[in-house]
């Protein structure tokens, strides 16, 4: 009998190259008979002048938290990958952040679309000021899809940690309520966009922003939920 989940096997027929990197990771993670392998997640590097490199301690801290609390085995070294690089296909989970402008070339648009359709997942965290730039770029990637606000009962908010009211509010920004938006392709959530929330700031070292332990815990727990959702949920 195959060791791999039927959903993963069906995906393999669609995008061979991407899923040699992604499907095997996901298959092992959702198969209880095997210990999860070590794998790596990536930080998206993009053009346009926005600070894609913001929050340098955030992803390593999130990975440590997930490994400790979810029994994952994620490499604590975070890869940096260009949006147009074929190396994008090697990472099952990509995180994107920044405060400012985002510009994708036509080639990058196609590369990112192929990655997401093929089984990859993109988490975008607005670090304040990114919203008006990222929305038009996402529309270029998926002109046929609408960026929809996810309801509070969506599974991403109810993994190991329950967030009955959706995203936690980590930083004030404009004082608006935090919102979680998604792009859904053929029934699968492929992009999760966190707005007016700033999870990444909450993942950073305590001295960076001076957030309370309780605030940092909420941010890390929600981040762990995102990882758990991506790697254990059949969509």
Describe this structure in words.
With 235 residues, this protein is α/β, with parallel strands linked by helices. It has nine helices and seven strands, in the order H-H-H-E-H-E-E-H-E-H-E-E-E-H-H-H. It has one domain (38-232): 3-Layer(aba) Sandwich (Rossmann fold). It has helices at residues 6-12, 16-21, 23-29, 58-70, 106-117, 131-141, 199-203, 206-209, 213-232, and strands at residues 42-45, 79-82, 93-98, 121-126, 148-149, 179-185, 188-195. Strands 2-1-3-4-7-6-5 form a seven-stranded mixed β-sheet. Helix 1 packs antiparallel against helix 3 (23-29) and helix 4 packs across helix 9. It is globular, with a radius of gyration of 17 Å. Mean pLDDT is 86; it is low at 1-17 and 23-35.
Key phrases:
seven-stranded mixed beta sheet; alpha/beta; disordered N terminus; Rossmann fold; single chain; globular
What's the arrangement of secondary structure elements?
Layout: H1 6-12, H2 16-21, H3 23-29, E1 42-45, H4 58-70, E2 79-82, E3 93-98, H5 106-117, E4 121-126, H6 131-141, E5 148-149, E6 179-185, E7 188-195, H7 199-203, H8 206-209, H9 213-232
């Amino acid at each position: 009998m195959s060791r791999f989940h039927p959903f993963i096997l069906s995906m393999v027929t669609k995008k061979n190259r991407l899923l040699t990197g992604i499907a095997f990771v996901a298959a092992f993670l959702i198969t209880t008979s095997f210990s999860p392998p070590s794998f790596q997640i990536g930080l998206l590097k993009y053009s346009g002048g926005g600070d894609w490199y913001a929050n340098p301690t955030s992803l390593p801290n999130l990975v440590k938290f997930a490994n400790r609390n979810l029994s994952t085995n994620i490499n604590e070294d975070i890869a940096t990958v260009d949006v147009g690089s074929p190396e994008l296909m090697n990472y099952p989970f990509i995180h994107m952040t920044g405060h400012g402008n985002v510009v994708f070339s036509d080639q990058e648009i196609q590369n990112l679309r192929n990655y997401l359709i093929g089984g990859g997942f993109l988490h975008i965290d607005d670090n304040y000021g990114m919203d008006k730039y990222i929305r038009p770029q996402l529309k270029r990637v998926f002109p046929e899809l609408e960026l929809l606000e996810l309801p509070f009962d969506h599974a991403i908010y109810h993994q190991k940690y329950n967030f009955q009211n959706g995203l936690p509010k980590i930083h004030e920004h404009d004082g608006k309520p935090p919102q979680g938006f998604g792009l859904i392709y053929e029934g699968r959530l492929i992009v999760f966009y966190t707005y007016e929330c700033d999870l990444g700031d909450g993942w950073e070292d305590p001295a960076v922003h001076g957030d309370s332990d309780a605030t940092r815990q909420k941010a890390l727990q929600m981040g762990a939920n995102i990882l758990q959702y991506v790697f254990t949920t059949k969509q």
